[in-house]
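User: I'm writing a tutorial on reading structure tokens. Could you give me a worked example: one chain, its sequence, then its tokens, then a sentence or two explaining what the tokens reveal?
Assistant: Sure. Here is the example chain.
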Amino acid sequence: MYASSHEIITKAENWRMSRKGSLLSLRDRVSATPSTVPVSEERDGSDSKWVAPSRQGKKAMTGYFSPEMSFAMHMTARKHGMSLQDAMADAFNDWLRKMGESPVGK
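And here are its predicted structure tokens:
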């Protein structure tokens, strides 16, 4: 009337194994499809990640600010037709000047 715990475990293992098998076949099917990446954007075989052309040669700098500061920076940048990144670059260059250093641009 009731299945033994061994039968239940065996059925569960078979279900998991069949699910894994279907995922593996899906992976093989997806990897067999031809790539639509243009030749100029293909990787060179190195382990490095693809980097957007606008980010090449640049380094990310992050910070955590209050919601009010974030809102003020975004709104002021938009008001003056600037991106937030350009506004931050201006602010960093102003700070460098204040500290007696030469501004370095964007």
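What the tokens reveal: The chain has a mean pLDDT of 76. The two ends are 74 Å apart (CA to CA).
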